[in-house]
Write a structure and sequence with these properties.
With 385 residues, the chain is an alpha/beta fold. It folds into 3 domains: 4-63 and 89-148 and 255-300, FAD/NAD(P)-binding domain (3-Layer(bba) Sandwich); 159-252, D-Amino Acid Oxidase, Chain A, domain 2, CATH 3.30.9.10; 312-381. The chain has 9 helices and 17 strands. It has helices spanning 14-25, 91-103, 220-234, 283-300, 312-326, 331-341, 344-351, 357-365, 369-381, and strands at 4-10, 33-37, 47-52, 64-66, 68-72, 76-80, 85-90, 108-112, 115-119, 125-129, 132-141, 159-170, 179-184, 193-200, 205-214, 240-252, 265-267. Strands 1, 2, 8, 9, 10, 11 and 17 form a 7-stranded mixed beta sheet that branches. Strands 6-5-13-14-15-12-16 form a 7-stranded mixed beta sheet, sandwiched between helices. Helix 5 packs across helix 9. It starts with a strand and ends with a helix.
Length: 385
């Protein structure tokens, strides 16, 4: 086996597989690609959701697509998404689809192994996996280790989006399969941003997820008690079966993430800050980032010429993080106002970091000025967290 490759993906999750997929789809058909991960990705370890007004590469593996979105507090807002749809893709389906596509190509190799070390070099980088060394012109490192991740909390916010979800089935129809409940705030806020997220696959099946944006995690029992209280007390469902459960923790910070790991090493995925700092959404951002890397390789012969979003979006992330960090109990009011006073299309453009200045101004004036200006003044003028 020749241990020299053009590209090595150190990590075979969303970032590594997406980049390999887009390389193959966009002209890099003769280059040798090695994808290394300690997990063979045969189980459903996560669920991704995203919105799009256009067809995507992954529509055919969508577990479900929705045409309406609900935001629920004291009142319920149901928003028509057209021309957008909101799509759910299960991790196991994504892994299987992309790996099957890549496996048609003899130049793609999958290796189930533990990456021990990544070393930079002038002409090649090296990846040591299970004691064996592999060379590549470019190494894309998406291994994010939460325990090794640190934030300068004197300069930047650091919250966690943490959640536990149940895939439940009910005996009788309980859900509207056309409407996803994006934010259901009918759960005790406890001075934090807490909400339920309901993704119905059918009238009797749904993913019900308890999500928090806060500094501290809860115990397993606390997540489960909140879900039980919501399913029984709010949805008024007494008889149901839990088929699967999922739990996750996503870092939320405006601290800049490095893209370069060396002359021949580039970071991707969560390790490269592809998670949206103020919302935790990542799937679409990973796809766009993968396409940008491919474009850079084509145009410049290296992967690093990737355009950053305008600086104002980092300021907006900082302000929202400040509100959630210092005034978490008021997040419910902020988000319900945003959805009540703006079209969902404007909000999607804003979250995609593709909005106009006019969009941004409309969004800013839709929240309480005192709260917004206070957060801006504290972070931008006083330089305090």
């Amino acid at each position: 086996m020749d241990d020299t490759y053009d590209f090595v993906m150190a990590g075979g999750g969303a970032a590594g597989l997406s980049l390999a997929y887009h390389l193959r789809r966009n002209g890099f058909v003769d280059e040798r690609v090695l994808i290394i991960d300690k997990d063979d990705k045969r189980s459903n370890d996560r669920t991704w959701c995203f919105w799009s007004a256009d067809e995507t590469d992954f529509d055919q593996i969508a577990a479900k697509r929705w045409s309406k979105l609900a935001v629920i507090a004291e009142n319920t807002q149901v928003l028509e998404l057209a021309p957008y749809t909101y799509t759910m893709v299960r991790g196991v389906d994504f892994y299987g689809y992309v790996k099957e596509f890549l496996s048609r190509d003899a130049n793609t190799v999958f290796l189930t192994a533990v990456v021990d070390e990544i070393r930079d070099g002038d002409a090649f980088a090296e990846v040591v996996a299970d004691g064996r060394t592999y060379q590549a012109r470019w190494v894309f490192d998406s291994f994010f280790v939460p325990r090794n991740f640190t934030v300068d909390t004197k300069k930047y916010h650091f919250l966690k989006q943490h959640f536990t979800g149940w895939f439940i089935e009910t005996e009788s129809p309980e859900f509207d399969p056309e409407t996803v409940s994006w934010f259901d705030f009918r759960t005790p806020q406890n001075n934090e941003m807490r909400f339920m997220y309901v993704l119905p696959e059918s009238p009797t099946r749904a993913l019900v997820e308890f999500t928090l944006f806060s500094a501290d995690l809860l115990s397993e029992e606390q997540y489960e008690n909140a879900l039980k209280a919501y399913v029984h007390g709010v949805l008024d469902i007494d008889r149901y079966v839990i088929h699967e459960s999922e739990h996750g923790v996503i870092p939320m910070t405006e601290q800049p993430f490095p893209r370069r790991g060396g002359r021949r090493i580039m970071y991707t995925g969560t390790k490269a800050g592809r998670v949206k700092a103020s919302t935790g959404f990542a799937f679409n951002r990973i796809q766009k980032d993968s396409l940008a890397i491919v474009a850079s390789l084509k145009a410049y012969g290296h992967p690093f010429r990737v355009k950053r979003a305008p600086r104002r979006y980092r300021v907006f992330d900082t302000i929202l993080l400040q509100i959630m960090y210092r005034r978490g109990g008021e997040s419910k009011d902020v988000f319900t106002r945003l959805f009540r006073k703006n079209s969902i299309h404007r909000l999607f453009r804003f979250l995609d970091e593709e909005s106009s200045i006019r969009d941004d101004l409309a969004i800013m004036v839709s929240v309480r000025w005192g709260l917004f200006i206070g957060a801006w003044f504290r972070t931008r003028i006083l330089r305090k967290i």
